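Look over this record before class:
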Amino acid sequence: FVDESVAVMVGFDTSLPVETDPADFDVSLLEWKSSDESVAVVNDGYVHGVASGFARITVSSGKKSAGIDVYVNDVIVSSFTVPSSIDVAPGYSTKFKVTSIKPEYAKIENLRFSPGQSDDLTLSFSENVVTVTAGKGMANGSKGSISVSNADGTLEKKIVVNYIYRPVTAVSLNVTSAAMTIGETKTVSATVTPSNATDGAL
């Protein structure tokens, strides 16, 4: 390796330049390994910070190998915005967005998401969108919570989770009848009541 150690922030990538002998060796043939993939993962010479901590990255070819120390550091988020509450039916999923994350280079990976102790919630992430899936055993009409905090715990916000199933009470069409000629096409739209019904997709 060119360097003995490298630092990377959680949620970010950095390259690990290597020197080979001979210099024209095909580096795509090198094998990469992380000593702790819960801290850092490596792929073809690029290391990604997963969580704060230390990992040793090893690259090898046959009986030859080299290692580099990787220190992963947290980005301390100074501000962010999440909804004050969300509604999700037991056994269903909903989504919310995390916005206004500061500093601007910070990512959602730099935040900590903790469901309440009695909440059966599964969280998944795609960029700044969080998908929340509630367990079927959660009581309809009950409440829970999700705590969102920065890495050092100096900033924390709580989202109230309303476990509520809203049944469809009515479906109406924009027309009650339509006269059509052969080959003609007309568009009919439907309206679900209430508009926020759990199974309201048509």
User: Anything to note?
Assistant: The longest strand covers residues 64-73. The chain has a mean pLDDT of 93. The two ends are 57 Å apart (CA to CA).
